Amino acid sequence: MEVIVLPDAGRIGEVAADAIGVLLDRKPDAVLGLATGSSPLAIYDELAARHRAGEMSFALARGFTLDEYVGLPADHPERYRNVIDAVVVAKVDFAPGAVRSPDGLADDIPAACAAYEDAIAEAGGVDLQILGIGTDGHIAFNEPGSSLASRTRIKTLTRQTRLDNARFFGDDVDAVPTHCLTQGLATIMAARHVVLVANGRSKAEAVHQLVEGPVSAMWPATILQHHPHVTVLLDDAAARRLQLVDYYRETYRSKPAWQGI
Ligand code: GLP
Fold first, then answer.
1. How far is the CA of 72 from the centre of ligand 1 (A)?
2. pLDDT at 258 over 90
3. How far does residue 257's CA lie from ligand 1's centre (Å)?
4. 106-141 confidence digits (pLDDT tens)
5. What is the number of the ligand 1 atom nearest to the C-alpha of 141?
6. Residue 127 exposure: Cα atoms within 13 Å on the Cβ side
7. Alpha carbons 224 and 215: distance in angstroms, whole number
8. First-to-last CA distance in the chain?
């Protein structure tokens, strides 16, 4: 796991966009894993800017989102499908239908989850997965207690996650759905490169557990310690509880430029 502490969200966006650019140069039809939440927004803004500048094309790329609320109407602005369309898909040149999401309105939820796993596999798996992290250490919507071997399935959101996300629902926690569909931890672990981004002091404990804590279903993101290629991009506030932060900073400073992330 590589831990990189950067001065601000803008720089985090640039470093992640560099990695996506290298991937798309090598593999124009790469499969990207797209996360919702505020943390990846700087990455999406940078991708959009590079696309506008003619430096990056997603015309052959494919995408899969991580998760979706169950039961939000198709036109609800906080439906993750609509959020991801607004923050990134509509700002670049993905082909129609190239980005897929779990169907939170499916009548047959288990079948929809199985179909989503099949679609990811048929696309050849995810090349680069963008991830945020919840304050309770969840990734996608894999809440504490999630099976470390889980696949796409329905989950119940914790009170903490619904409180965290109430800001998107007029600060009304009761308006936040109780259930979601989410890629499982094993689904995420199958991505070839995971780029996790965290900003702000509210994420500091989850980041400390992710990087330096014991692997445990109580902090689901810790499963990433078993992944061979994870890059963690942090601002100073999110890094403030890391015991080895000086080592991570020194390692990145002295990293050969040819290595990339
Ligand atoms: C939600 C999403 C996660 C995201 C998390 C943190 O729970 N399902 O994918 O990582 O929020 O969001 P934010 O980046 O806004 O703090």
1. 17
2. no
3. 31
4. 999 999 999 999 999 999 999 999 999 999 999 999
5. 8
6. 18
7. 8
8. 10
| All domains in the chain, ordered by first residue | 2-253 (3.40.50.1360)
- Give start and end residues of each alpha helix (H) in the chain: 9-26, 41-52, 80-87, 109-122, 159-165, 185-189, 204-212, 245-253
Angle at 176 between CA 98 and CA 8, to 5 degrees: 65
- Token readout for 224 is 């990433």
- Residues classed as catalytic: 67, 136, 138, 143
* Pocket-forming residues, ligand 1, beta carbon under 6 Å: 35-39, 66-67, 132-134, 140-141, 161
Distance, CA 106 to ligand 1 centroid (Å)?
Answer: 23
Summarised one tens digit per residue, pLDDT across range 152-205 is 999 999 999 999 999 999 999 999 999 999 999 999 999 999 999 999 999 999
113 class by beta-carbon count within 10 Å (0-12 exposed, 13-18 middle, 19+ buried): buried
* Residues in a beta bridge with 233: 4, 197
Whether the pLDDT of residue 101 is over 90: the answer is yes
Instruction: Out of 34, 39, 169, give the residue to mutate to test ligand 1, the one with the largest number of ligand atoms within 8 Å of its CB.
Output: 39
